[in-house]
């Protein structure tokens, strides 16, 4: 009886724990992408408004973003301490040529390889596209996985380009690295308690039968 209970507990606990761990990354990604969608639309709306009034100035935008990136930051987010702004935004025209880049101004004037995403974004004025890419840092030559979301820029109701916002998965991976062992530990503890209870139940059920057998 105990062996059967052991197999039942292991089977019933192992799959849910595995499923939670596998889907945990997706849950974090969904939360990040939902915020990026709002940010991309706000970013595109501000840029489009300034372009309509001929007030769009990459120089002033660079000054604002450089100030934001240089601000001292120490935010305790549960187990992670955030020390710098890792948000990245850039704007392209209809052909995919970068007209503004908050982090890498040297990219301005270049046509990025994802110009098809630009075309798909501006084709539908209400579309918002979510994509993932590996971005290489020109300072370190290290590739990091990024989420980036594109939203169309409208100038007097007509497509004028696309606004992209991006965020690295660094902190997401740190959250996952902290959460996964906790899930496994809780699952193992629950399975251990279940096995102890199964053993106690098996002993309680079989004890009268053993006594009757000895008496017979």
Structural account:
By secondary structure, the protein is α+β, with helices and mostly antiparallel strands. 55% of the residues lie in helices and 22% in strands. It is built from four helices and seven strands, in the order ααββββαβββα. The protein has helices at 2-52, 58-70, 115-123, 170-215, and strands spanning 75-77, 80-82, 88-92, 98-101, 129-136, 143-155, 158-168. The strands form two sheets. It has a five-stranded antiparallel beta sheet. The chain has a two-stranded antiparallel ribbon with strand order 1-2. α1 packs antiparallel against α4 (170-215). The longest helix is centred in the N-terminal third of the chain and has 51 residues, at 2-52. The radius of gyration is 27 Å and the shape is elongated. 15% of the residues are buried. Residues 137-142 have low confidence and may be disordered.
